[in-house]
Specification:
The protein starts with a helix and ends in a 6-residue tail after the last helix. The protein has a single domain, classed as Protein Binding, DinI Protein, Chain A, CATH 3.30.910.20. The chain is mostly helical and about 190 residues long. The protein is built from 6 helices and 2 strands. Strands 1-2 form a two-stranded parallel sheet.
């Protein structure tokens, strides 16, 4: 993503350099008027959009109980570890603790793998949705470039260049339409 942004800026500066090289006032004025750059705060979209909120809720619903169970098991192990500090603790109890800890570590790794796979899928879906929404907004408002301000490189942008609210509204609209289509295509229960 950063390479893309750097290449975009290089291309932008190259275009500006070519236009400047033409060395005519009218060419510069026309090119300056035609070039319209927008910015979007991807961090805001990733936190505040309806699909991001729905994704977090879905992950919590799907994995919340398992996460809580692992946390409880970890707490029990911490209590067992405290008991092992007692000089009277047997080697057998220490070995049992180590086996239980290894078992919990393996369960935790497996859990994290499952969650990460779902998070990656959700992020990919979100990125497609955000890019499509950004494209729609940029086309509607006649922007030539749209840059992510959270990726760095943008130190200042006029408020009129900020498309974050528009893209957020478009993402939410597209998500609701997609969600409605999905629910309409499901067969009704009881039929």
């Amino acid at each position: 993503m950063r390479k893309f942004l750097v290449l975009t800026f290089v291309a932008l500066f190259a275009m500006v350099g070519v236009v400047s090289a033409a060395d005519t006032e009218t060419t510069n004025a026309a090119a300056g008027a035609a070039l319209k750059i927008g910015v979007v705060d991807m961090q805001t979209l990733a936190q505040d959009s309806d699909p991001a909120k729905a994704g977090r809720a879905e992950l919590e619903k799907k994995y919340g109980k398992e996460r809580k169970d692992l946390e409880n098991e970890g707490e029990k192990l911490r209590k067992r570890a405290e008991k092992l500090k007692d000089p009277k603790a047997t080697e057998e109890s220490k070995l049992a603790f180590l086996r239980a800890k290894q078992d919990l570590d393996q369960k935790t790794r497996n859990f994290m793998r499952k969650v990460e796979q779902d998070e990656v899928k959700m992020r990919q879906d979100m990125i497609v949705l955000v890019f499509n929404a950004t494209y729609n907004v940029a086309q509607r408002k006649n922007f030539n470039f749209v840059v992510d301000v959270t990726a760095g490189g943008v130190l200042y942008a006029e408020q009129s260049m900020d498309l974050t609210k528009d893209v957020l509204a478009e993402v939410n609209k597209m998500f609701k339409e997609k969600d409605k289509k999905a629910s309409d295509s499901k067969p009704a229960k009881g039929k």
